[in-house]
Write a structure and sequence with these properties.
77% helix, 0% strand, membrane, transmembrane helix, DUF2306_membrane
Length: 213
């Protein structure tokens, strides 16, 4: 079950990364479709700067998704400790960059201030969980470190779940896009917290603090 879950997680990550790069760098590099939904902004967007920040945000969100996934298999931890450590630092750096770029874009969030607040809250939660994982490994608490990494890694799928929930609400239930997006943002925060805890209780293998894959 654990091996199948890990394989499924990698497959979902690969598909989403491919979709993100195609959508944002090939199909619609000016983000015309996405920006078209930002109709209630109270401040103008400096488009060249916003697009550059968004591109950096996307690239490092994908880096975090890949580097985080690569550090879970026990064979990486046991046989490639230097890679595991370097990759861990890469993950942390990616999370910080994603948080900083998200912080810049938050005031321009679709749906206005209510979603700006949510994105800032999400950034604090994600960074806090990542810091907790660092603190635990510094204390040699491997099992606790791995658990906090599971919680942190879940938030790599934030964008995917936001757009999935938004799509279902808007296209499936005919709700206004901004309302759907707001439900997507808040629903994702709640859902990822729950999913992480479900994974820890069903998939996580805690003797010696390892996740088998």
């Amino acid at each position: 079950m654990r091996k199948h879950f890990y394989t499924l997680m990698l497959a979902v990550a690969a598909v989403f990364i491919g979709y993100s790069f195609y959508t944002n760098f090939i199909h619609d590099p000016q983000a015309t479709a996405f920006l078209g939904h930002k109709v209630t902004l109270k401040r103008p967007i400096n488009l060249p700067v916003w697009l550059t920040v968004m591109e950096v945000h996307i690239v490092f969100a994908c880096v975090a998704m890949v580097s985080g996934a690569l550090n879970f298999p026990s064979r990486i931890v046991q046989n490639h400790r230097k890679f595991h450590k370097f990759n861990g630092y890469l993950y942390v750096a990616s999370v910080v960059i994603v948080d900083l770029t998200s912080g810049y874009m938050a005031p321009f969030s679709t749906g206005g201030k209510i979603n700006s607040v949510a994105f800032n809250l999400l950034n604090v939660i994600w960074l806090g969980m990542t810091i907790a994982a660092i603190v635990q490994i510094k204390r040699k608490q491997i099992d606790k470190h791995r658990k906090w990494m599971v919680r942190s890694y879940a938030f790599c799928y934030t964008n995917m779940f936001i757009h999935l929930i938004t799509f279902v609400c808007h296209n499936g239930f005919g709700m206004a896009y901004e309302t759907s997006y707001t439900i997507g943002v808040y629903g994702t925060i709640l859902l990822l917290l729950v999913i992480a805890e479900i994974v820890l209780r069903t998939v996580y293998w805690h003797p010696k603090g390892r996740l088998r894959a």
